[in-house]
Amino acid sequence: MPDIEIYTQPGCPYCMRAVALLERKGVPFKEINAPRGTPERAASTSRSGGRTTVPQIFVGGNALGGCDDLMALERSGKLDALLGLG
Q1: What angle do helix axes 13-25 and 67-76 make, rounded to 10 degrees?
Q2: Cβ 53 vs Cβ 7: under 8 Å
């Protein structure tokens, strides 16, 4: 199973939605608190190729994208394989 990391910010509804989906999938993941102006947010932006929004999700060290990208993978049936579930 690949390492999963998600950069989030308190109170972000998109972050909560993405975290909830990962929890429903039952996969272990590391949630990294990354409010604006923090070193964690800068790391997220750098790792994602310049994306400044949260959440930013990484699977196996590769940038997956944000909440909309995660939900699109789920709708297309491709998320489970990417997370190592299928």
Answers
A1: 40
A2: no
**The model's pTM:** 0.95
How far apart are the C-alpha atoms of 30 and 86, rounded to whole Å? 21
Nearest-angstrom CA–CA distance, 1 and 13: 27
**HSE-CB for 54 with a 13 A CA cutoff:** 25
User: Per-residue pLDDT for 42 more than 90?
Assistant: yes
Task: Please write the tens of the pLDDT for every residue from 20-35.
Answer: 999 999 999 999 999 9
**Is residue 45 left, alpha or beta, with left meaning phi > 0 and alpha meaning psi from -120 to 50?**
alpha
The 3-state secondary structure of the chain reads: CCCEEEEECCCCHHHHHHHHHHHHHCCCCEEEECCCCCHHHHHHHHHCCCCCCCCEEEECCEEEECHHHHHHHHHHCCHHHHCCCC
